[in-house]
Structure formats: structure tokens, C-alpha cells
Amino acid sequence: MQMALLARLSLASSEARESSLEERHAGSDEQTLEQSTEEASQASHFDSDSQVLLVSSSVDGSLPNTGQLDRECNIDNGMIGVPSDRTNYSGDASGEVADGGLSVSSAPQRENVILPRLGDICMEGPSVRRQTADRGFPRIISSSSMDARGDFSAIENQVRELINDLGSDSIEGQRSATSEIRLLAKHNMENRIVIANCGAINLLVGLLHSPDAKVQENAVTALLNLSLSDINKIAIVNADAVDPLVHVLETGNPEAKENSAATLFSLSFIEDNRARIGQSGAVKPLVDLLGNGSPRGKKDAVTALFNLSILNENKGRIVQADALRHLVELMDPAAGMVDKAVAVLANLATIQEGRTAIGQARGIPALVEVVELGSAKAKENAAAALLQLCTNSNRFCNIVLQEDAVPPLVALSQSGTPRAREKAQALLSYFRSQRHGNSGRR
């Protein structure tokens, strides 16, 4: 009963912000990875001083495609989603994992596993257990007939057995155990609570320094899936995971780096964690991933940087790490990350360092273009950033006017979102006051 209560508490506390953690295949860095998870909401607009927050929306208005599985964290169209686990799967509906974590085929494949919204998950729902006859190839079997108490007991026994392997000296044993735990942590919230309560988190954190790339990748991905639970977010940080996650972000294989960035993003939903992550040195490797990572890595990095940029003390760190140059590059529609990049820019525009860096990176023409051609949420964020730039610098104000920003701002003031109309009207009013002031001085 106590375990069930913990699970329900965690489900309720997470529902308002997160929808599901799901696995995806790692593909070639040259191939754009598709978006697939439905994303969770986080209350959101710019507040009065243009601080960016987000509102709920579907990613590009689409749901996962059949046969695909993705652990994306996004702020597309002004919406945040929580990233998730990735593992190479066969097409077998049972969820059997390919031996050694190798891809079953050369092309990225993703299972379509869409979990219900967390508030809809109940203790009597489908549960999972390992088929013991297949020790070398972990196999997770759905079962709706198992008694909830018996199911928890079975999963606890399974997890305790896997924990023994996590602490062994055998690399093969660690690979197998971390692979199974990341898979168990993928399926539902109850599993995540059980895994954490059995003491797996500390061992997984220790394995982030493993010299074996696959063990490290499995461990960080398991922590990513476990972090969906707010209780686990706190437990992971209390296990001193932040510095090891930064180590993975700096030294891991591409998949591990992406999942480390996604884990930091997930942990940063807890307000106190944002300062701790910012102080850990995570910002620079996140910015490096933003500039040099795969399309997936860039998305993971920009969402993590967004959450960190909510905290004032992190804004300067992000600017000093030369993030603005990469963010402006990502405002090219061809990159597919305009909404994400503009959301971070709008946060950084609230400090002088950020405004200076936006001007130096030629971000003003890109922001004006977004006001004219971007999505509804991107227009809102771009208008907020321009308002900050113009009201704090006559030079930037002149550049904005030279970019012929008035017509798209007039259109936005009439047909944008309420927040976008407010920002556009304020900016147009500022232009008028400046013009009248200059006229009076003559």
C-alpha cells in the first residue's frame, strides 16, 4: 500500500508538466531524427519583464508515427516535453532487445509506445516482468492479469537481482543489468518508483564513470527514464549525479551525450536544481553540443539551456559560453528549431550581456524575420526579445527600424496571440514616442 501511495503521489505531481519517457533508436548524425512523443505542458508565456515560460501544445501538431519511438524533449510551438530513453529494438511487439545493444538494422527504427497521460495510469493497469527463460536477451512482457501487490513483488525481486549485477566487476553483467533497468524504467511510473526504492540510482550514477561506453550509455539513459518522476528527480540530484552527468556530456559517445543533456533538462524542472546544474559547469558542454551535435543532440541541448536560462544567474553563463552564435544559426527555418532558439533568445534578451551578444551575432534581422514568418509562439517570443532590445538601446532600436520591422509588428499587434499583441503594441508605442521625442528636440 505504501508503494502504491508513492507511485500515485509521483504521478499526480508530474502530470502537469510531463507526459512520457520513451525509447528511440540512435541513428546517423547525418539523418534528421523525427519528432514523436506527445509533450507535457509547462505554464508559459513571457511575464512582464519578458521572462520566457511555455504553454502546452502538440509538437508540430503531430503524434508519433506508427513504428517509431522517440524520446524527444522539445519546446516546439512553445511547448515543453520531457525527453526519454533510447534503445535498439527489434520489431517484435514483445520488446525484445537486440544483442549487445546493436542496431537491428542500419536505419533508425523506433517502436511506437505511447503511454497514457500520467494521471490516467492506475495501479491496476498493465504491468511488466522479465521472462526468466531469456536471461541473455531481456524480454519485457505485458500482463494485465497480475495482482498489483504480486506485480510489485515480482518487479522488486527482478530489480534486486539486477542491482547485484550493477555492482559486479563483470562488464558484461553491468551491460546486461543496465540495459534491463533502462528498459524497465521506460514502461511505466510504477516501475520507476520501484527501481529507485530498491537503491538503483546510486549504482547507476557510479556507472556514469564506467570506462565501457555501452555501460555508460545504458546508465545515463536509465537515469533519464527514472527522472520522469519528481521524487526521482530529487533522489538523482541528491545522489550527486550532476557532475557525473556533465562528465558524460563531455566524454560520452553521441547517444550518451544526448541523453545526458536530456537528463539535465529533466532534472532542471525542479527549480533548485537549475542553480546546481548551472554551477556544475554543464553550460559549456551543452553549448558545445548545441553547436556540434547531431540534430537530436542540438534539440536536447537547446531545451536544457532553455530551462537553465529561466534562472537569472545562468543567463550570463550561457552568453559567456558563446551560445548566441549557435542560437541565431538555429533560427534558420531549415534547422527546424526556430521556436526553441527564439524562446532561449527571449530569455537572454532580459540581461545586458545577452542583448549585446544578440546584436553581435546579427540576431536582430533573424528576430524580425520570425515576427513576420514564424509560428504564433515564435512571433510572440521574438516580439518580446525585440522589445527588450529596443527599449534598452537606441542603436538596436534603429537597427530594428532599418530592418523594416514596423509592418510585421503592426500585423502582429492585430492578429497575434494576446501576449504577442501586447508586446507588438508596446514596441510600436515605443517607436512613436521616440519619433515624437526626436521631433520635439529639433
UniProtKB/TrEMBL annotation:
PROSITE patterns: ARM_REPEAT
Gene Ontology terms for molecular function: ubiquitin protein ligase activity
Biased composition regions of type Basic and acidic residues, renumbered to the chain: 15-28
Gene3D superfamilies given in the database record: Leucine-rich Repeat Variant
Keywords of this entry: Repeat, Transferase, Ubl conjugation pathway
EC annotation from Swiss-Prot or TrEMBL: 2.3.2.27
Coiled-coil portions: none
Residue ranges of domain U-box in the record: 158-434
Name of the protein in its database record: RING-type E3 ubiquitin transferase
Organism from which the protein derives: Triticum urartu
